[in-house]
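Deliverable D4.2, example record:
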Amino acid sequence: MIISFIHAPMRWARVLALGVSCSLVNAAAVAAQDSTTLRTLPPFENHGFIQVYYRTGDPLTKDGYRLRKVDFKFNGILTPKLRWRVTFDAAKVISLNTATGDVADTAVVTNVSVDQKSRILQDAALTYLANRYLSVDIGQQIVPLGLEATTSASYLETIERANFEAERSRAVGLGDVRDIGVSANVALPAGFEGHVGMFNEMGDDQGSTDANDQKALLARLVYHVPLLPGFQFGGTGGFEGGPVAQMKQRAATEVQYRNSLVTLRAETMAARDGLLRRFGWYSLGALRPTKDVQLVARYDSWDRDRTAETTLSNAFERQITVGASYLVESGLAKISLNVVRQTFPNITTVPDGTFALLAFQALW
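Output generated by the structure prediction step:
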């Protein structure tokens, strides 16, 4: 009797376990049937890019490593005409915007907020393919400002972009910036390429809502010459109205010839942000004697404030860059060395210098 009493709960436990197992098996079978007959997940892809470099010799920057980029890119197909993409840069470091005021003749911080441009979210957009020539992007995306600025970092000839894109000590960068808006993109068989968009700002409001009622209009037009494959030229224009302190303007030109052996490229960029006037240009040449080796040289001129010449924040700057790159692991990885001569010809308080960048990057 005692033995039967002890074994009865065990039998009931086995029966209960068997029932639960059957239920789970049936649920899995139903789910599998639903997944194959009722709904198929749309295909998607993921890609990534990592770039790390070491900087040494720059009198304005301490020697050290920098995790330049850690991109994770996801994209997929929702319908035959609808695509999606989301991109993150995990190397970004959150920064703060601060506002100061005077309290009892003392400057104090009155407001602190997260700089939305420092968040890791890069692209987050939907693309509608209207036809074989026209597509429309809506969401957060790179704004159409110039050629190099809209080229992926993994395909650049130099480690750093030109100064008017990379240097952001005054206002927002003039390229390689993102904002929220809508753009139309067209590529015609005759060689014409066009990108026209309306955004909250020109890269100021990445990841946030617009701070004013005015919108930024940007257009980039390019012509690829059919009789000379690899040769293209074009320009970019942009405008945002409003009060003088808010008004923004952009004007840029670009020209490039590229084939498997050489790249020759030049760009200019003029900008107005309120009362601030900026202008930059560069010319670049790259030679690829073999499929794994690339040699590059660039002359870069950058005036971050055309109305002043007193400190580093407004000093006119010139750079001459020479370098070499070597592709490894079937082109999925690259080792690069750039030597940069940096001068500030109009100001003596900022030291000139020569520094080196040694970078390793991988793409998948």
